[in-house]
Amino acid sequence: MKAHVRVPALFVLLSALLLSACGGAAPSATEAPAYFEEAPAMEAPAAQSAADGIAKEESESSAALPGNAVFNTGADSPIAATNHMIIKSGEIKLLVESTDNAIDRATQIVGDAGGYIVSSRVWYQPYYDGKNYKYATITIGVPVQQFERTLSRLRGLAVQVLDETASGEDVTDQFVDLQSQLTNLEATRERIKSFLDQAKTVDEALRINQELSNIEAQIEQIKGQMNYLQDRSSYSTITITFEPVLPEILPTPTPEPEPWQPGKTFEKSKETVIGAYQGIVELLIWFFVVFVPIMLPPAFLVWLLWKLFTRKPKKPAQP
Q1: Do the beta carbons of residue 256 and residue 165 sit within 8 Å?
Q2: Which of 30, 133, 142, 173 lies most in the core, judged by the most C-beta atoms within 10 Å?
Q3: What kind and span of H or E run contains 160?
Q4: Short-list 176, 157, 179, 184, CA closest to 93
Q5: Whose CA is closest to 92, among 168, 169, 162?
């Protein structure tokens, strides 16, 4: 009897354990579909963050300016950008012995450096000695690699360097900004071209074409600015002023008043009186020796003629 009771009890216990195990596993089975339904919702933020990361990397790569980066600015060949684009400029004023010789030697220095003359001016200025002296100003462009060497050679032309200034402007950020704008405008142009292909009416085509023209004008303007920055950073400008060495003018000393000297005044007055009498005597000598012998015969002849013509006739005697 006890054995019959134990067997059903054991069977009931096993059944209860199986049911409890199934009941514990059932919720996991039923929750599994909910997990898979929510999986896409959980993957969406991850995909969005991944896309944001890719976009961020692309924007950072476009904003960076590596040393071997190549940009297309509409030139005949792509332009290679360096890590830094510096626009260098300088001004130097030189005191030289001869302005003409200095100009010739400066022109030779520019040619050796592979540069060119941007502008020149020559003028003359009078000086206290009454002469005109030559001055000159020349603006040159030299490769940026030859900037310091050219300045050093120009110093060698001068007797004295009167003034010198040099400056540099970093336009790397400005160039990168222009490159980013160019990339965005070119992408916008491609999208507008696709809209132009999808235009269904003439009015739509005209409006899209007008917008396309505006975008292309902006692109050309940005390319021009980039080319300008590229050219300015490739060549540096130096303004040279030549001034000739002027002769030294000694200051005129201020005359000091002489003290009163009566004896000296007496001597001067005596010399003056003697000179006056000498002049009178010399005049009389010239008169009697030269003037009288020359003028006396003509005067005597004139006197005789005058007497002859003015003589009165004799009156007849009275009876």
Answers
A1: no
A2: 142
A3: strand 160-170
A4: 157
A5: 162
Q: From first to last of its 319 residues, what are the pLDDT tens digits of the chain?
A: 444 444 444 444 444 444 444 444 343 333 333 333 333 333 333 334 333 443 443 444 344 444 334 344 443 433 444 467 888 889 999 999 999 999 999 999 999 999 999 999 999 999 887 889 999 999 999 998 899 999 999 999 999 999 999 988 888 888 888 888 888 888 888 888 888 777 788 887 888 888 888 888 888 988 888 888 887 788 889 999 999 998 887 666 677 777 878 888 888 888 888 888 899 989 888 888 888 888 888 888 888 888 888 876 666 666 5
- With contact defined as beta carbons under 8 Å apart, do 111 and 143 qualify? no
Per-residue b or e along 174-203, where b marks 16 or more CB atoms closer than 10 Å to that residue's CB: ebbebbebbeebeeeeeebeeeeeeeeeee
90 strand-pairing partners? 166, 238
pTM of the model: 0.47
